[in-house]
Write a structure and sequence with these properties.
Helices cover about 60% and strands about 10% of the residues. It is of the alpha+beta class. It has 2 domains: about 400 residues, no CATH class; about 90 residues, Immunoglobulin-like (Sandwich), CATH 2.60.40. The longest helix has about 35 residues. It is globular, with a radius of gyration of 26 Å.
Length: about 550
């Protein structure tokens, strides 16, 4: 086996196969007519978010139509960035159909993730041709098809744009893999990318933190105090950038049933044992098939003591560590308690959240392959993943299903139920028309209704306790006769109640921010303003430098 670097080339047939897969996946959004298991809920959230944006609510929090009209605090918790994309696209294009907006943003995310991966691969020393191939593999791998069409999670798909950029920032901060020492630019890139990742997918942000800790353990001897200090500063900036989102999450987390997510622990070993979820098992086989080629190459390099480039050695070490960690989590007796009780990991839900790291590492293998063994592994990974992507891509474009296609109803995520709700969804649905805005001694009539405010006209001959057609939520405040009235939840449905005074007057419900929420908005506003100012100054300086160098 030769230890010399060779120009990396693919067989013509493989170029053709990869090209066909890319074309099919780019065409898929224009032909797809069905959604995956999370599709209805994602479209429901998208529709609600876009509606709030169109009504002038810049930072949507409360969903008035959620949970059968009782309201939902979904956007206090659900990361908003993917839905900002659909909402802005709706405002710019005039297209209002949520499925079209979903597919359009999904297509843009696929293309953006290609360029993000290419930037990372160039940062770790990839040559142009291999950077293009590795980026294509990351953007069009079969796992990406499963995420967008089998699972239909737009938020996760959009989040995959930022994952390579986070690692690119880390590479630049720590100066490894031919980064050129652009450490401060790397700090800014890391901060902004990780902030955008958090604003798109909390589970993927947690996965990234975990894999960063794995990387720190693998490369602990190469860590330098200055680089760690810059990473710490970047982390502080990240916190500032996401403060407007994180602070409400922390404040209101005790008031919803997020513990419901701890019940959703999925293991493919269970699926294999019970012979179910064949689509998921198919994609898992492709993922590990590519990694098997990588592991075989590693075994050959070690057995024959082949000299390899430092970039290849780094990829070998890091990929082995990540794979070992994932394989341990795949074992239910080990993975279930870790994913249920361990801090951070409890937000991940399942080992499949880590699979995008395997896809990115596979792309890195393609990008930095220099020795014959590594290049052979890279070709095998491309063969396996390209051939594996062909079948689902064709099925999507032709709208065919190998089995019965079943998609559930568009329900509001149950983890956003207020804690005071002790009735099931069927009870809530049956009660939605049975509660009246009346005391029995007068009436309550709506005057104006907005997502964050409701004005009512009240006429009551005597004071009395009134149950309103809305969930109790601490951020909703009730005012009448110039003073705030105390509200509380009822004991079963969790509906808001208040003791109304007698008389004729106007009553107002207001969705209000706490001082901490306002502080979060100010902090994030200053942080994003500082980032934009820094980038603007950098671009201006670059333009002046280029102009000066071109002058005679």
């Amino acid at each position: 086996m030769s230890d010399k670097s060779k120009t990396f080339r693919l067989p013509v047939a493989l170029y053709i196969l990869l090209g066909i897969v890319v074309v099919l996946e780019l065409a898929a959004p224009f032909f797809a007519r069905t959604n995956g298991v999370d599709g209805p809920s994602q479209l429901n959230l998208e529709t609600q978010f876009n509606s709030l944006l169109s009504q002038g609510i810049v930072f949507p929090k409360w969903v008035p139509q959620g949970f059968h009209g009782f309201g939902s605090p979904a956007f206090y918790f659900y990361p908003p960035l993917a839905f900002y994309a659909t909402g802005i696209l709706q405002l710019l294009s005039g297209v209002s159909k949520p499925d079209i907006l979903f597919q359009a943003v999904g297509l843009l995310a696929t293309l953006a993730s290609f360029f993000a991966a290419r930037k990372l691969l160039l940062a770790i020393g990839s040559v142009r041709n291999q950077a293009l191939l590795g980026a294509a593999l990351y953007a069009f791998a079969p796992f990406r098809i499963a995420e967008l069409y089998s699972r239909s999670s737009l938020s996760s798909h959009v989040a995959y744009i930022f994952l390579p950029l986070v690692w690119c920032g880390l590479v630049q901060i720590f100066g490894n893999w031919q980064s050129g020492g652009k450490t401060w630019k790397g700090t800014l890139l890391f901060s902004v990318s990780f902030a955008l990742l958090m604003l798109t997918s909390i589970p993927l942000a947690v996965v990234t933190i975990v894999t960063m800790l794995v990387a720190a353990a693998v490369f602990r001897r190469e860590l330098r105090a200055g680089a760690v200090w810059r990473l710490a500063l970047g982390t502080v900036l990240t916190i500032g950038l996401v403060a407007f989102y994180v602070i409400p999450v922390v404040l209101y987390e005790p008031y919803v049933k997020l513990q419901y997510l701890s019940k959703l622990r999925e293991f493919f070993i269970d699926d294999l044992f019970h012979l179910r979820n064949f689509a998921g098992l198919y994609h898992l086989a492709l993922l590990y098939g590519g990694m098997a080629a990588f592991l075989f190459a590693y075994w050959r390099v070690r057995r024959h003591r082949v000299p390899i480039a430092q970039a290849e050695k780094n990829i070998f070490q890091f990929t082995l560590a990540v794979l070992a960690f994932i394989v341990v989590l795949e074992v239910p007796p080990i993975g279930r308690p870790l994913l249920t009780k361990m801090p951070l990991l409890e937000l991940v839900q399942g080992t499949w959240r880590f699979y995008i790291d395997v896809v990115l590492l596979g792309a890195c293998v393609v990008g930095i392959a220099r020795t014959a063994a590594m290049q052979k592994a890279a070709r095998q990974i491309i063969w396996i993943w390209s051939a594996g992507a062909l079948l689902p891509a064709v099925l999507i474009v032709l709208n065919l299903h190998l089995g019965t296609h079943q998609v559930g109803p568009a329900v509001d995520p149950p983890e956003y139920h207020p804690i005071y709700v002790h009735a099931g969804d069927s009870v809530l649905e049956g009660a939605k028309d049975g509660i009246e805005f009346a005391t029995g001694r007068g009436y309550i009539r709506p005057i104006t209704e907005k997502p964050d405010r409701e004005d009512d006209s009240v006429s009551s001959s005597s004071a009395g306790l009134v149950t309103f057609h809305r969930f109790y939520w601490p951020a909703w405040h009730l005012y009448a006769n110039g003073r705030e009235l105390k509200t509380s939840p009822d004991s079963i449905l969790g509906l808001a109640r208040a003791e109304l005074p007698a008389g004729d007057y106007e009553m107002t419900w207001k969705l209000e921010r706490t001082p901490l929420e306002t502080a979060g908005l100010l902090i994030s506003g200053m942080a994003w303003g500082g980032v934009l100012l820094t980038v603007g100054i950098g671009l201006a300086q670059r333009r002046v430098t280029l102009k000066g160098s071109s002058s005679p």
